[in-house]
């Protein structure tokens, strides 16, 4: 779980004040996502990587959006690719935002 403010923890909760669109899949496995590039300049970052599915990217982005260490987190789309050597398919993605120092 990310480090969150009290307000964000309430927002993602199952309770009546919680936002169902912000809730995490508790059984999500972060090992399904990998980083290929992370660049940061003056607080703005671009994060590129791969994932087993689009749903894995969604779960990663939700956790980054909830974190006190990031803001303006935005998935910038991606594409499904097939690895030439293994024949496995994966999802390549980009997420942008700002790092909170």
Features:
2 helices, 19% helix, alpha+beta, Gyrase A, domain 2, 101 residues
Concise structural overview:
By secondary structure, this protein is α+β, with helices and mostly antiparallel strands.
The CATH class assignment is: Alpha Beta
Strand order within the widest sheet? 1-2-4-3
Secondary structure class reads alpha+beta
Give the biggest sheet.
Answer: 4 strands, antiparallel
Inertia-based shape? flat
Radius of gyration: 15 Å
CATH topology name: Gyrase A, domain 2
Query: What is the annotated CATH architecture?
Result: 2-Layer Sandwich
**What's the number of extended β-strand segments?**
4
Helical residue percent?
10-25%
Low-pLDDT runs: none
- The number of helical segments is 2
Elements, N to C (H/E):
HEEHEE
- Terminus-to-terminus distance: 19 Å
Task: Classify the beta-strand content into a percent band.
Answer: 35-45%
User: How many domains make up the 3D coordinates?
Assistant: 1
Mean pLDDT: 90
Report on this structure:
It is a single chain. With 101 residues, this protein is of the alpha+beta class. The protein has a single domain, classed as Gyrase A, domain 2, CATH 3.30.1360. It has 2 helices and 4 strands. Strands 1-2-4-3 form a 4-stranded antiparallel beta sheet, covered by helices on one side.
How are the elements arranged and paired?
Blueprint: H1 6-11, E1 33-41, E2 44-51, H2 54-66, E3 70-82, E4 89-99
Antiparallel strand pairs: 1-2, 2-4, 3-4
């Amino acid at each position: 779980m990310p480090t969150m403010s009290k307000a964000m923890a309430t927002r993602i909760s199952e309770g009546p004040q919680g936002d169902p669109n912000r809730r995490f899949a508790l059984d999500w496995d972060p090992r399904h996502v990998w980083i290929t590039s992370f660049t940061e300049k003056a607080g703005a970052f671009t994060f590129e990587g791969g994932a087993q599915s689009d749903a894995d990217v969604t779960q990663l982005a939700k956790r980054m959006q909830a974190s006190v260490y990031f803001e303006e987190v935005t998935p910038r789309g991606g594409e499904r690719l097939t690895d030439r050597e293994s024949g496995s398919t994966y999802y390549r993605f980009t997420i942008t935002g700002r790092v909170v120092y």
